[in-house]
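Z., the sequence and structure:
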Amino acid sequence: MKIFLKKKGILVLVIVLVVALILGLTVHLRAGKAGPLANASSALRSPLARSAVAVTEWLEGVYGYLYKYDQLVEENEALRKDLAEAEERARLGQEAIEENEKLRELLNLAEKRSDFVFESAKIVSWDSSNWANCFTISKGAKDGIELEDAVVTEYNALVGQVVELGDNWATVRTLVDVDFGTSVLVGVSGNTAMVIGDFSLMQSDRAKLAYLTDSSTVFEEDTVITSGEGGSFPQGLLVGTVTALTTDDGGQTISGIVEPACDLSQLTQVFVIKDFEIVE
C-alpha cells in the first residue's frame, strides 16, 4: 500500500511538470508581438490548464482516500489484536472461575472423606485410537502419583485408573475402556457385580455390568458404586447408573449397561486419589 502511494505521488509530480511545460510555451520567443506558436498556445492553455488542475485534484483525492484506507487497515489490525487479547483474558478468567468451582466441590468431598489425599491434574491429550479410551494428565511420579491410583471428578465420580506413569505425566484408563474392570455394589441391596469395558459400548461412553446372578435384585436406574474390594479403589466412589438389563438364553446370568456418572467428553481436569484408608 505504501509503495502504491509513492507511485501515485510521482505521477502527480509528472503531471504538474507537463502542465508547467505547456504553460511555458506561452512565453514570447522574442520581444514584441506574439508569434503563431504563442497564439496557439494561448488558445489551448486555458482548457489544458483546467484539465491538468482537475486531474491533479482527482489524484490528490485518490491519494487522500488511499492514505485514509491505509490508516483504517492499521486501525482494524490494532482492534483485532485488542479483541484477541480481551478474548484471551476472558477465557483465562472463565477457566479460573471453573477451576475454583471444582476446587470448592473437591473441598466438600475432602471434608466427607478426610482419608483421601488428592492431586489435581489437567488433561493434556486423549488417545486417538478407536481401540482404547485413555488420556494423559499433567502430573506424574514427581507429584506422588502411582500406578493403579484411582482418578475421580470433584463430585466423587469415578473416571478411571492410572496405568502408565512418567516423572511429570501419567496415562489414565477410563472406566469404559475395554481393559478396565472393578468390583462394584449395585442398588440399595448392595448386589455385588463387576463393571468392565466392552468394545461396542465403549464407542458410546458406556460400560458393561457383569457377573450378576438370577438371585440379584437389580433394577434400571439403580446406582452403582465401587465396593473397595481388592484395594485399588476406595469404597463408595460413584461409578454410574444402570440403564438396561438383559439375561442370557438360559436365564441364569444377568448383565446390564452402566452410564458413567461423569461425562467423559467434557472432562478437562481430574483428581488423582494418591492415598486413602482401605476398608476391610
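Confidence is low (pLDDT under 50) at residues 2-7, 25-34. The first strand starts at residue 117 and ends at 126.

Let me know what you think.
H.
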